[in-house]
Every structure is written in structure tokens, then in C-alpha cells.
Amino acid sequence: MKFILDEPGGGYAIQHYANGKITVNGIIYRENLLVMPNQVIPQWRPASFDDLTPEDFVQLAKLGSEIVILGTGSKQRFPTPALTYPLFDARIGLEVMDTAAACRTFNILMSEGRQVAAALFTINP
């Protein structure tokens, strides 16, 4: 599903998502990744949703975002509060949705100038 024009106005924007790959500023990623308005971090550590640990959320809390969008693959799945406590403790919002919705939401919030990070699983959980 294509989301935006091929020439983003500035920063990193998600242009396309299909199960197994995400296109950001013309580069295709086939692994889980973190996307922020000012950078992309490929090869985000958890191999799957079930592999998430509190340390992954500590890493997300250190990104300096006001909100984190967690894209959980083809289906929306919610992590336990014990996992997400590092975000709560840092007063960082968390929105959980399927990856397609997370990609769209990231682009909207980024275009509004929000400090947002998307943690995206590219493969079905």
C-alpha cells in the first residue's frame, strides 16, 4: 500500500508498506526497524512481537520521542504493561496498532512536526 509521494518534503517518511518490507525515502527495508523524523534504525533487535523485552522499551524511551507507535505486524497485539513500563516511567505515550496503520499514523504525526518514533515489525508475528 503506497502512502505518500516519492519525494518527501523533509525528514524520513514511510512511502510504502507490504508484509515483509517497508519503503522509507526510497530505501526498502525487509527487517524490523525504528523510524523517526530524523533517522532510521534498521535491524531493530526483537525478531518478533513475542521476543519483546523491557530492554527494547528502554531503548525506545531513549529515542527522545513524545510518542512511540508500535506496529505489531498484520494484526494488532498489545504488549503487557510490565514490558512497556520504561515508556510510562519516561512519560512517553504508546500507541499500538497493526504495522500498516502504524506507518500511516507515523506519517501524519511526523507531518505535524511531532516527535514520534515508529517501532515496526515487518513480518507477521
Q: Care to give the gist of this entry?
A:
This protein is an alpha/beta fold and 125 residues long. It is built from three helices and eight strands; from the N terminus they run βββββαβαβαβ.
Question: Describe it for me?
Answer:
The protein has 125 residues and is α/β, with parallel strands linked by helices. Helices cover 24% and strands 28% of the residues. It contains 3 helices and 8 strands, in the order βββββαβαβαβ. The strands form 2 sheets. It has a 5-stranded mixed sheet, sandwiched between helices. A hairpin with a 2-residue loop joins strand 2 and strand 3. Helix 1 packs parallel to helix 2. The radius of gyration is 13 Å and the shape is globular. The two termini are 19 Å apart. The N terminus is likely disordered.
Secondary structure layout:
Layout: E1 14-18, E2 21-24, E3 27-29, E4 33-36, E5 39-42, H1 54-61, E6 67-71, H2 81-89, E7 93-97, H3 99-111, E8 116-120
Parallel strand pairs: 6-7, 6-8
Antiparallel strand pairs: 1-2, 2-3, 4-5, 4-8
How would you name the oligomeric state of the polypeptide chains in this document? single chain
First-residue to last-residue Cα separation? 19 Å
Structural class: alpha/beta
Number of strands: 8
Strand arrangement in the largest pleated sheet: 5-4-8-6-7
Mean pLDDT: 91
**Main beta-sheet annotation:** 5 strands, mixed
Report the total helices. Answer: 3
What fraction strand?
25-35%
Q: SSE order in H/E notation?
A: EEEEEHEHEHE
